[in-house]
Amino acid sequence: MDALQTGMRSLPELLNLQQQLKKRREQQQNYLAVCGDTGCTAWGSQNIKGVFQKCLQQKGLDHITGLKFTGCLGLCESGPVVIVFPQGIFYQKVKESDIEEIVEQTLLQGKIVERLLYQDPLSGEKIIYAPEIPFYRKQERILLVNNWEIDPSSIEDYLALGGYSAFGSVLASMDSEYVIGEIKKSRLRGRGGAGFPTWQKWEECSEMAAAQKYIICNADEGDPGAFMDRSLLEGNPHSVLEGLIIGGFAVGATEGIIYVRAEYPTAVQKIRRALIQAHELGLLGENILGSGFSFNVSVSVGAGAFVCGETSALVASVEGRVGEPRQKPPHLAERGYNNCPTVINNVETLANIPSIISKGAEVYRRTGTEKSGGTKIFSLVGKVRNTGLVEVPLGVSLREIIFDIGGGIKGGKAFKAVQTGGPSGGCLPASMLDLPTDFDELKAAGSMMGSGGMIVLDEETCMVDLARYFLKFLNDESCGRCFTCREGLSRMLEMVEAITKGQSSMAEFALLKELAAVVKDSTMCGLGQTGANPVLSTIRYFAEEYRVHIEEGRCPAGVCRDLIQFQINTELCNGCGACRNKCPVEAIEGEAKAPHLIRAALCTKCGICLETCRYNAVIKL
Amino acid sequence: MINFMLNGLDVAVEKGTTLLDAASFYGIEIPTLCHDEGLSPYGACRLCLVEIGEPGRSRLVTSCTYPAEEGLLVRTHSQRVVNTRKVIIELYLATCPSSKVIQDLASRYHVTQVRFQQKHDNCILCGLCIRYCKEQMQGKAIGFVNRGVDRRITTPFDRKSEECRFCGGCMYICPACQARCQGPAEKSAVCNACLNLSPPCLDHFGETMCYLDPCVACEQGRQK
Ligand SMILES: Cc1cc2nc3c(=O)[nH]c(=O)nc-3n(C[C@H](O)[C@H](O)[C@H](O)COP(=O)(O)O)c2cc1C
Ligand code: SF4
Ligand code: SF4
Ligand code: FES
Question: What is the mean pLDDT of the segment spanning A497-504?
Fold first, then answer.
């Protein structure tokens, strides 16, 4: 495979290389996919891989069975995850001590190690093959599917699975107009938050007459708890890169920039490696594959501010200035990076591009809704049984995601709300569970798609406290330029804090709503404009909970510390003294074998006594 | 020329004119705090909001930064604008009451109550001083540091700046007087060139200027 050493100069060379790699891959169907993404790494998958390697060598299997350290396999909760190919046997919670057995039993004898299989929490049934696990069965994994089959550090893997053929066909037979037309037909909308039609952005930029244009991949992903973009970059960096190159071709850019936050060192490393590989192969650089199209890509590492995800702040940050939004217009398509026309797309948006081009827009848009085509990756977290990354067609209902894929609420508790759209999204109650996950529907319901965060909340969540949490995040992340964002959000935070402390009034509550509306209406960038959402959406659906806090001085969910009390039920207390020993502030007193007492004045309401007491004598009021 | 609708009037201005300048040309007053004719627009005080676009799909934008567009519908005093503006002024009063400029705005726009908790900041971070120093004096002696609620104005590394020529321009232009009244005795990073210990409103209005009861502007003056 000379091309791997020397780089390619023409399209036939690319086709040839893909063919060869495909053939080689067909001959090597046996491999183990060990998840190497953050969730599983935290569970210890780095060591697992090492032990596998050793074990395979010892048994002389290392020539027969390959070992891939892949990106996120999805079911983060059950990590470390190992999938045995070609069968697709799914082992979860694999420990170092299990490895020998997997190699002995499964690889050598073709038997299944029962105890490592995934057990369906609902039916109790053990499931052998990954695609049959309910968590995966209901998903449609277009973007993430290759995470199972690709070693992200290998461009060969990506090529063997048909990678870069979309780019190849663009160079072979398409012009900018055609590509943009395909994207238009596909109904792809930006996955970075606003859901803006991608074709429109591209067309605007492509129509600008300028010697220099830029396309930037937004990998800032600042939402707490979100990791879709990171998973794509770490699990399949070449798919994002291919999308970026095709985008560059369509808008007439000669340079691409990938803006990654510094908190993602692995993603930075993987994407840097991918760039080098693409360069060496001749997929980046001057006169790519003899087509006359030249394109280079660099990586820009941000310093990690949420607001730098906003496009004009992002540009400022890449230029080396303070990451602060500026007033638009002029829009970036007119004046962006280095004052040149610039288009900025989200990681996931770009990862969709290759599959649109290779499958054709007609096929692509069969997935999704009337107005937006394709799938969306959600990071499903919170009080659901199965947490992890979930890729579903746009338009699937919240209920399907939370109950069918997520497996419902953990610990038999009741569903209370789902928070979608990241910090500036909103909370939707049980009555909205049948809402389709669609940009417009979510927005009309007072929340948003955002970048795909989905936090499931159970009955033990206090909605006022939740609003306070997100408001605090946004208040900390505001750049502080707009008076109404800086002062408005911090005043709102004070007012919500007062409610959680029982120090508010209905008049102040009305003022809070008025201020929230003003902040939403009067700020410069998306952060301020959506900054009031956590408050507005919780008020919209959970006004009663606010009222109870304010008028009755009670927190129904028992979360707000100033509104709850811990007491000891003297009839149940047998005076064992366990709580007294554990209380960090010595607020509990009592003689041995006599009922104990919590001194309210000293109690900091940490709740340790409640967890400690084995006789359920401690009660929370 | 760009033709657009300003409060129902057909108007025309040169390309590149901001809505604020256009309104002022046609004699319509829009309040501002962070704008000055000699300085570049900044869009931070959010007072100059106007409503643009068809009713139902309209939005508020800052007129000091928004260029007139062909066919645009602009309303400078719609109910939405007036209500929003009043809450913003109320918030200014609750934040920085000792500023004469803010007091005047309040009386002009009929803001007669402060429902927010009263605070006494001495800078509204409008950035006029920074732009004055940079654009008029080619000085760059002061700038913003930090983000969000921690944002403040200071000299590089909080040291007395060698760039500063004691022109006093920052104090002259400041609507909130942070730089005006600290005196050389105060440990302040800003230039300390001037010694003016009383709130500026007292010169003109004695203790009667402020309808806030008690007049917090004076209160602040007395504390010093
Ligand atoms: C405060 C703020 C933070 C944002 N953070 C991100 C981000 O982390 N990643 C992202 O792709 N888009 C983010 N966005 C949205 C971007 O501004 C922009 O809409 C998006 O990158 C455009 O790409 P798309 O059209 O492909 O969605 C953010 C927007 C705002 C206002
Ligand atoms: S809305 Fe907030 S984050 Fe956005 S520019 Fe204004 S102050 Fe900065
Ligand atoms: S010191 Fe005065 S002029 Fe400078 S930002 Fe503060 S309020 Fe504005
Ligand atoms: S004058 Fe326009 S935002 Fe301050």
Answer: 96
Of all atoms in ligand 2, which is nearest to the CA of residue A484?
7
Confidence of residue B96 (pLDDT cuts 50, 70, 90): confident
* CB atoms B43 and A480 under 8 Å: no
- Ordered alpha helix ranges (H), A252-346: 265-281, 311-318
Task: Confirm or reject contact between A598 and chain B (CB < 8 A).
Answer: no
Residues A52, A96: Cα–Cα separation, whole Å: 8
β-pair partners for A257: A216, A298
Looking at every residue in chain A, the average pLDDT score rounds to 93
Per-residue pLDDT tens digits for A355-373: 999 999 999 999 999 999 9
What residues contact B75, with CB distance under 8 A and at least 6 apart?
B7, B50, B51, B52, B58, B81
Examine residue A358 and state whether it is found in any structural domain, yes or no: yes
Per the CB < 8 A criterion, the answer to whether A256 and A288 are in contact is no
Cβ atoms of B150 and B121 within 8 Å: the answer is: no
Structural domain count, chain B: 2
What b/e string do you get for B112-137 counting C-beta neighbours within 10 Å, with b at 16 or more? eebebeeeebbbbbbbbbbbbbbeee
pLDDT (average), residues A511-534: 96
For residue A501, what are its two tokens? 């402390």
Query: Per-residue pLDDT averaged across B75-88, rounded?
Result: 94
| Structure letter (DSSP) for residue A147 | G
Rounded to an integer, what distance in angstroms lies between the CA atom of residue B55 and that of residue B71? 14
pLDDT of residue B104: 82
Structural domain boundaries, residue A421: 375-458
Report which bound ligand comes closest to the CA of B99: 3
Distance CA A208, CA A202 (A): 10
Q: What CATH number does the domain containing A498 carry?
A: 1.20.1440.230
CA distance linking residue A129 with residue A124, whole number of Å: 15
Q: Name the pLDDT band for B220 (thresholds 50, 70, 90).
A: very low
Task: Verify that B99 and B10 share a domain, yes or no.
Answer: yes
Closest CA to B18 of B67, B75, B71: B67
B128 Cα nearest atom in ligand 3: 3
Can you read off the two tokens belonging to residue A95?
């420990």
Whole-number Å distance between alpha carbons of A281 and A238: 13
Predicted confidence at residue A2, as pLDDT, reads 56
Protein residue with least CA distance to atom 4, ligand 3: B129
Of A458, A480, A512, the domain-final residue: A458
Structural domain for B18, as ranges: 2-119+179-223
Beta bridge pairs of residue B129 = none
CB atoms near residue A272 (< 10 Å): 16
- CA A91 vs CA A32, A38, A57, A467: distances in Å: 11, 18, 21, 39
Model pLDDT, residue B193: 37
Q: Please answer whether residues B97 and B118 qualify as being in contact, where contact means their C-beta atoms are separated by less than 8 angstroms.
A: yes
d(CA A195, CA A247) in angstroms, rounded, equals 17
| Contact status of A523 with chain B (Cβ, < 8 Å) | yes
